[in-house]
């Protein structure tokens, strides 16, 4: 959809990774946590129920598959998937791989401490590794590719 624009605050706080069938996938600029955002490319949508049923299923497929792949390759202890929208009304889903003993454990990552920006080398590496994991997924059917 050509008139989709992610909220400026989401753009400011994150880096683009790729475009999925429904969502733009972004990496939050906080090296303390493996933290992704999924932003459905639907202008004016702020609530999950504003998506049609097919889009709701696709959103959940993308969030759960991306989260599962990231948890596996990063070795996390817990996967958090959440929609808040209190600060940014545009519908977006947080996908956060958590580790026991991380900077916010066991509490939520939102509003905990000061974000630590990625250095450029770590950012490039993290983004490339995420992209490789996501490209191995068939997000239309929810199954892993056989290629």
TrEMBL record:
Gene3D superfamilies: HIT-like
Keyword DNA repair appears in the UniProt entry: no
A GO molecular-function descriptor: hydrolase activity
Domain of life: Bacteria
Keywords from the named record: Hydrolase
InterPro entries (alphabetical): HIT-like, HIT-like_sf, HIT_Hint
Protein name: Diadenosine tetraphosphate (Ap4A) HIT family hydrolase
């Amino acid at each position: 959809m050509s008139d989709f624009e992610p909220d400026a605050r989401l753009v400011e706080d994150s880096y683009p990774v790729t475009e999925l069938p429904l969502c733009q996938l972004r990496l939050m600029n906080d090296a303390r946590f493996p933290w992704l955002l999924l932003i459905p490319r639907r202008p004016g949508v702020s609530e999950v129920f504003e998506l049609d049923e097919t889009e709701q299923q696709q959103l959940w497929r993308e969030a759960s598959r991306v989260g599962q792949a990231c948890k596996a390759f990063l070795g996390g202890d817990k996967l958090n998937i959440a929609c808040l929208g209190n600060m940014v009304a545009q519908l977006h889903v947080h996908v956060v791989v958590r580790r026991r003993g991380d900077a916010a454990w066991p509490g939520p990552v939102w509003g905990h401490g000061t974000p630590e920006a990625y250095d450029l080398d770590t950012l490039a590496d993290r983004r490339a590794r995420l992209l490789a994991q996501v490209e191995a997924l068939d997000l239309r059917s929810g199954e892993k590719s056989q290629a």
